[in-house]
Design brief:
The chain is mainly alpha-helical and 231 residues long. It contains ten helices and two strands. One of its GO terms (molecular function) is steroid hydroxylase activity.
Length: 231
């Protein structure tokens, strides 16, 4: 019995020593930024982020400072909230934001079904990008601006006229967002393009992060929204 107790005691002693040393050790250069601890593999901080994202980020900021890492799903996310840190990344590591792999991941997260991704990539690169370049070129910018402003004012006037028929609480972000989206669709694609996509676009936009990092959430509303938008 004593022979069996000795390995057990040694094992527990090593576990305790490991815990104490990891708890009280100094943060080395390679340990920076610090990692938010999690006791659940894969799920990690996903549940906390879904329930209260701003609250989680605020508590981590207070505890770990302006830079820290956390696991969400199977992805490690590095959060940098200091102005100097953000400026340094845009200045010295701007190539990260132009990575084809990141763009492909975003396209796949938006497209969903695998066969949709090549089609959307084709549309983005060979149709949308050249069209945006022509529309926003210096020689045609005045036409785009005039069309955009005209439709934007029309949308705002329509909202004011509708509001006189009955009182309804609407957020300022939604009013501005709907008007801007309608004006952009009209200026880019013409009057025949439907601009009744604000709700679907907002729904999909709210779920892109969860899709990109495979965070568990209720998929059905955004899946239906995405299906309508792709169509």
């Amino acid at each position: 019995m004593a022979f069996l107790d000795t390995p057990v005691a040694i094992t527990f002693a090593l576990i305790a020593l490991s815990f104490v040393s990891s708890h009280f050790r100094r943060v080395r250069a390679e340990d920076y930024p610090p990692t938010v601890p999690s006791f659940l593999p894969y799920i990690s901080t996903s549940i906390q982020y879904i329930l209260n994202p701003s609250g989680l980020l605020e508590s981590c900021f207070k505890k770990y400072g302006p830079a820290f890492k956390m696991l969400i799903g199977n992805r490690q996310l590095t959060v940098i909230s200091s102005p100097d840190g953000i400026t340094a990344i845009f200045r010295d590591q701007h190539h990260i934001f132009n990575s084809n792999s990141i763009q492909l991941e975003l396209t796949q997260a938006i497209a969903g079904v695998r066969e949709n991704a090549p089609r959307l990539q084709e549309i983005l690169h060979h149709q949308m990008a050249p069209m945006a370049g022509r529309t926003l070129a210096k020689r045609s910018m005045h036409k785009f601006t005039a069309t955009y402003v005209e439709r934007l004012l029309h949308e705002m006037n329509t909202f004011v006229a509708d509001s006189k028929r009955g009182v309804k609480a609407v957020s300022l972000m939604e009013v501005v967002g709907r008007s801007r989206l309608a004006a952009l669709c009209h200026a880019f694609f013409g009057p025949s393009f439907t601009d009744d996509i604000y709700d679907d676009l907002s729904c999909l936009d709210a779920s892109v992060y969860a899709r990109l990092y495979r965070v568990p959430f209720y998929w059905r509303p955004s899946t239906q929204a995405r299906k309508r938008l792709i169509a």
